[in-house]
What does this fold into?
Amino acid sequence: MPDILVKYQSEIIDAICETFYMVGVSMLAAIIIGLPLGTFLYLTRIGSIRENRVFYGLLNLIVNVIRSFPFLLLVVFLIPFTRMVVGTAIGTTAATVPMAVIAIAHYARLAEQSFVDVPRGVIEAGIAMGATIPQLIWRFLFVEARAGLVLGLTTSIISFISYSTIMGIVGGGGIGDFAIRYGYQQYKTDLMGYVIIIMVILVMLIQFLGNSLARLIDKR
Amino acid sequence: MIHMKQVYKAFGSYEALKAINLSISEGEIHGIVGQSGAGKSTLLRMMNKLEQPDKGEVEVAGQALHTLSGTALYQARQSIGMIFQHFNLLSNKTVFDNVALALQLVKLPRQQQKQRVLECLNFVGLSHLAKQYPAQLSGGQKQRVAIARALANNPRVLLCDEPTSALDSVTTAEILDVLKLVNEKLGITIVIVSHELDVIKSICHRVTVMQDGEIYETFPIKAKGVLRAVSTAEDIVKLLKKGEE
It folds into this structure.
């Protein structure tokens, strides 16, 4: 291993842990809140099972606004909200708040897309079989969309890693922040290069795992 | 078994069904034919309330569907089977689980599920494929699974929306044999929408010909014979009645 990596080994490991923490919380937020939100988006779409133009329009607008917000500005804009939720606007935990917000919007949209890809006829068969709305969601929609949901989550996680790199601005730390502080600001270009390689490997690994899992559960 | 009285349905300004009156008796195989856009699919979908009538009454298997909603509607639908042109099986579930799904919806105990699924798969002759996924089956096999799924909850009516239109002629004949068996052995009333007159002619007891959202004529089928492509409702009636006497 290059000497410079050995020298900064413990800092790098800490930074990776911070990244995992931020990305992990975002991922949980995406699943716990983003997935139901995506389900509501799908259900209330025009022509869908529980069409509701007002509800869909509102939800759609919120998701679009959050997604189109430049992320750096979103982080700053959310500072009062962050302070309300976790008591501080500085640090790794504080950094998870804007990341969770973007994660929810990001994954809600991807989940909605996966649901739209489920053939309409399968849902219709469920309705004809007398399935209730919860049964339609759990036993038809989620079952048929599951590979898309996994691939969407993989895409989301990789985006979160990318988003996490700028969390240094609120003292969030993480591997991206490490690369900026040591590699860029202290002119250790080689160190920055190594960190980038680590991140590329990390992302490729996540993509590989996501693809493999999706292939395993996709019987189409 | 099925009674429709003065049923109307419009999609926006387009009138899909106009003043439909139709009675189908128990044990009958009833065909619905007509050009595309004549309203035959809409009519069929009224019979399990996939489409809600704007006006009129729809009674199926003793249930006044037009008055039902919520749990009562879900329960009524469980006793009305339906199969589709594109089968609409869950591709991520095995053949066994696809049929079991119908039983899970009514919360049948697991042990009874297994027995019932195997009965249904045996009936359509597919119990040896229980562990396969739909992607591994031929079109005809998929439609058999769909029939098994539709039979699982002992329906009194089976609605078939273009059941053989995605199949070749040999497979079509096989599926029609299964449907005949469903009708004769289980006494289930069958309604078939099809644009294939051969299908109607070879299996139906009576047929309703539709045109522009209205019933053009309903009459019994007695004649056998080969049919060719036709266009208007008048042609269809003529051809289906030919050789009757």
Observations:
- The two ends of chain B are 29 Å apart (CA to CA).
